[in-house]
Amino acid sequence: MKVLITGATGLIGRQLCQVLYQEHELIALTRNIDHAKSILPDTVTCINTVNDADFNALDVIINLAGEPIADKRWSDQQKEKILTSRLAITQQLIEKIKLANSPPHTLISGSAIGFYGRQSSHIKINETFTDCTTEFSNELCEQWENLALSAQQYNTRVCIVRTGVVLSAQGGALAKMVPPFKMGLGGKVSSGEQMMSWIHIDDMVNIIVHLMENTALTGKFNATAPHPVSNIEFTKTLSTVLKRPAIIPMPNIMLRLLFGEMADLLIYGQAVVPERLTKDNFQFKYKELHSALSDILI
């Protein structure tokens, strides 16, 4: 199949290209072609505008682009940048799909479990959950998802992927957690009771491939491992795998001073489960946190 990928140089996109390039013709939409060519397989075609792609010839679009949500404090300017970076490219894709005589049959578009907002640790959240908390992460994901879903008007199947905390040796949240733990400075965050819905990078990529290949699937999917854990359990497991103590907690007041409003991502959480993927018999390689962290860090 001919596949257009946005966000191909990101954490998920890079790994996805490594999995897909041998069997599919890949086109990476990127702002920096030289950088993309330096890290992606040689056979990937790199373009920097949607106008460089023939949407009548595409089979699948995988839309992962967007300003990183946790790299900077959430000033009003940064929140606008996070939002518009996702909506702008998605809108461009929708316009090209709309104008195509033979549009791509599938659009797989990113989202996040932040859609659900802060939730009690006692609630298991599947894709039908509607009692979401209205806050920035929820509003961001809702607008992004609704825009992507509008492609269905033009005979394009749409799958929305609500991603949890992606665990990888190549970057992301885990790369920021490991150094202090290795120095013996790790510990629980806030109360430690907040839930963390995580997923191994291999399973994340395999979910996208699964949705791409199974054309009967459509709608919203939680991309998380079947067993979310509390921050305390995550901390203990990471400490065990690294064989380092984890006794220095990070209190709310320090999180607020360091990260401002963005601290909500660390203080609050959700116990999100991949009910739709489980019912579709998707086979997770890493269902348990210990095996996932061991694979990445040992």
From TrEMBL:
UniProt domain DUF1731: residue ranges: 250-296
Entry-linked Gene3D superfamilies: NAD(P)-binding Rossmann-like Domain
Highest rank taxon of the organism: Bacteria
InterPro entries: DUF1731 (IPR013549), Epimerase_deHydtase (IPR001509), NAD(P)-bd_dom_sf (IPR036291), SDR39U1 (IPR010099)
Start and end residues of each NAD-dependent epimerase/dehydratase domain: 3-215
Pfam hit, one: DUF1731
Entry similarity comment: Belongs to the NAD(P)-dependent epimerase/dehydratase family. SDR39U1 subfamily.
Protein name, as recorded: TIGR01777 family protein
